[in-house]
Specification:
By secondary structure, the protein is α+β, with helices and mostly antiparallel strands. The chain has one domain (about 25-100). It has one helix and eight strands. The chain is globular. The two termini are about 30 Å apart. This is Lipoprotein.
């Protein structure tokens, strides 16, 4: 294999690995039943909601669960989010969320 070809392969692999390091996040606007708005950001394995950060605890079916400290039974987490419908249940309160922005940053 020639040196230029070897260099091209190495550069291609490095670029591919760099793309994997991008930080994906989605910004959502959520309204409760009273019409009050809150911003939610899902970034990697964390949810930012109402000025707090919650860890991703896992998923069951279409639901993703988040909490300050994950419990043994993930369905007991304080936050249940269904991305396909935008429904968020936070400490027993229901919110309807709509995605505003999905972005990748290096």
């Amino acid at each position: 294999m020639t040196a230029p070809r070897r260099l091209l392969i190495i550069l291609s692999l490095l670029l591919g690995l760099t793309a994997c390091e991008r930080n994906n996040y989605t910004t959502w606007i959520c309204k409760n039943v009273a019409g009050e708005k809150s911003t939610m950001i899902i970034k990697k394995a964390q949810m930012q909601f109402q000025d707090r950060e919650f860890d991703y605890c896992g998923s069951l079916g279409p639901n993703s669960y988040f909490d300050l400290k994950c419990l043994l039974l993930i369905q007991d987490a304080s936050k249940r989010f269904t991305p396909s419908t935008g429904q968020l249940i936070s400490d027993g309160n229901e919110y309807q969320c709509n995605a505003l922005l999905k972005k990748s940053i290096p």
